[in-house]
Amino acid sequence: MHETMNVWSLILDATLTVKLVMLTLLLASIISWVMIIQRYLVLNNAEQSMWSFEKRFWSGMDLSQLYRDGSNQQKENNPTGGMENIFRAGFKEFMRLRQQGGVSSEGIMAGSQRAMRVAYSREEEKLEKHLPFLATVGSVTPYIGLFGTVIGIMNSFIGLAQQSQATLQVVAPGIAEALIATAMGLFAAIPAVVAYNRYSARVDAIAGNYITFTEEFAGILHRQVVSVSK
Amino acid sequence: MTAFNGYPISVLLAVLLHGLILGSLFMMQRADSEVLDVVRPPAVKALLVEENPQTRNQQVQQQQLAEQRRQEQQRQEEARRQEEARRQEEARQEEARQEQARQAQLRREREQQEREQQEQERLERERQERERQERERQQQQRLEQERLEQQRLEQQRQQEQAAQEAAAREVAETEAEQVMAYTAIIHDLVQRNWSRPPSARNNMTAVLRIRLVPTGEIVDVEIVRSSGDAAFDRSAENAVRAVRRFEQLQGMPPRMFERSFRTLLLTFRPEDLLN
Q1: Residue in chain A lying closest to B18 (CA)
Q2: Could you give the domains of chain B?
């Protein structure tokens, strides 16, 4: 292939603009990989805690007991999962309104449902954090790489214009150097795009589970309110 | 209530991943450049063999045909070589004849000079001495200029050459010098129009024969000896055709033209264009 030139010499011999572009791309790639790994861990964690909480919730356990368990867990500085947070917000509001007295059953239901909606949107926000960054990296880095390539090829052609005899040896290093920028852009973009699509789907699935759970829990609370008021 | 976040570990992993990729790239390059010098994998050509008798017959016929063609080519090659040898012999004889003629002329000149007075002879000698020095100086200058030529701009070069040609024509008085001057002009023109193909290698030579008419126009170009590279031959031929006409040859005495410039052999080499 090439006897004397390798990728490293090409990178080191590049012009300042191209070097800056490459540096930007390297940083973007590193940061996007940080996000990818961090989101992976966060989503895995959320899914796991969701399954375990659902299991406990449908095991026929007393709801106030479940609530107390969560409180104890938080006291031990061990944060509760997303679905449990929704449950806790709704249950807390439900108990508070019921103990207050003088609130109609519709009022109690509306209050606890509002609390659960707030908790749900907070959880969803937590899950979707950093995903827009991945989307940005995925769509912008190819352009940045292309920019570096265009600048590099421009430079090599300017150099070519000053030569009387144009040979391939004159142009080739410049173009190869410029193409490295595109390669790096794609290298940063491809994982980011794949991760973004994958994680969006997973966030959607988790958020869908949360909504379903919210509705089911509201149904249980409603049953309780109706049975008590009768 | 702090939610789970894996920032430290993910930063670590991401940096590690990039370091690993860059490192492996580096190692691969190293290994590549070391191995490339020593091991060169043999080229393996895969052939699709058809077991069809008809196609096999065709193949056999084709092979025979190819063999015949090859023999034919060899014969032609042989004939061309002989022709070439003959031509070279002719050229040598021609040269010898030219040399004789020049010597005869010189002898005549000498006789004439003897008849003339001593004074004139001395002046003549002085003049010749001056001329020779001038010539030598010109020669050196020309060599120097040729060496610098490639680095200069095209326009500058053209102007200088025009001046040089004019000067050369004024100075060159004997026929041999004139022939040399005209040859130099032809070389310069052809070389200026010659763009060497990328496939040109230093040891290639192509010999072209060109036929001229007294107006300087090229009437025929023919490849006498091929360099073995078609692109190179074509480029040489194109260079000659691109000149189309050597306008400087118009003022040449017809006798000299007939003797030296009716047909001309040009040898093309990538590093230089030689006669």
Answers
A1: A30
A2: 120-274 (3.30.1150.10)
